[in-house]
Design a protein that fits this description.
The protein is of the alpha+beta class. The chain is built from 7 helices and 12 strands. A 6-stranded antiparallel beta barrel has the order 3-4-5-8-7-6. A 3-stranded antiparallel sheet has the order 10-11-12, sandwiched between helices. The N and C termini lie far apart (about 40 Å).
Length: about 250
């Protein structure tokens, strides 16, 4: 089965893989267009993602890429998941292209801090601002001959589902902390004696903190409705218990 929108075709497995790469990204190469002559300019940036999956970037007004984006918001973000491979060109990478825009409100800022807890101190500097990359399309390479072009809409979560999950997030987090602290520790891969805090929930998984360090746990598949959240959390817990049991046997 494939998805086809706006001339972009990708199989479901490829789209799922791209969503996982997008959600797991902590850093990427941001390509902007030089404001003087239009030459592409790539820089390393710290990244996170909003509830709908859109990449979030905390950029300084003083940075060259921010000045470029003020003149022309078109940009792309390369997410590289090839580190540690013997032959890196066999690994997965995803380039998301679109326009960079301001990301206002507490929601995006909170999501960014989940991925980069130390970024809270930058909030006090007047020249740092949070931006969102509005994904128009993506190009994914998952090894030799495994190339997909993906429509931006296939990467992102529909606004109605984003709103539903945002509305129940606080209660779900409180419930997990009160009644399922042990399960959270296993899902986060915490070591004995460590506790895990559930910081955020989205349609693709959950973001946790263990001793101030961010951890990501993805659902087996994207939620289609908010009422699926309970079952998805139960599946994460069951998988974590199986992994814990296997580790204890080895």
């Amino acid at each position: 089965m494939t998805h086809k929108k706006g001339g972009f075709v990708a199989g479901n497995d490829a789209i799922d893989r791209a969503r996982e790469l997008l959600r797991g990204a902590s850093y990427g190469a941001l390509a902007s267009l030089d404001r003087a002559d239009g030459t592409p300019m790539a820089t390393l940036v710290a990244a996170a993602n909003d509830r709908d999956g859109s990449p979030l970037l905390l950029l300084s007004d003083l940075a060259e890429h921010t000045k470029n984006l003020a003149a022309d918001p078109r940009a792309s973000l390369l997410i590289d998941a090839t580190a540690g491979l013997g032959e890196r060109l066999t690994g997965s990478r995803l380039t998301v292209a679109g326009k960079v825009e301001a990301a206002a409100g507490d929601g995006p800022a909170g999501r960014y801090r989940l991925r980069h807890p130390d970024s809270a101190m930058l909030g006090g500097f007047a020249d740092f601002r949070l931006y969102r990359l509005a994904a128009a399309r993506a190009h994914q390479v998952a090894g030799f001959g495994r190339i997909d072009r993906i429509d931006g809409a296939d990467l992102l979560v529909e606004p109605a589902l984003v709103a539903e999950l945002a509305a129940l997030e606080e209660g779900a987090i409180a419930h997990m902390h009160a009644d399922h602290a042990e399960a959270l520790a296993m899902i986060a891969g915490a070591r004995p004696g460590e506790t895990a805090r559930l910081g955020g929930i989205d349609a693709d998984g959950v973001d946790l903190l263990v001793a101030g360090r961010p951890r990501r746990a993805d659902f087996a598949r994207r939620l289609s409705k908010s009422s699926d959240l309970r079952a998805a959390m139960a599946d994460l817990t069951a998988a974590a218990r199986r992994q814990t049991a296997e580790n204890s046997r080895n």
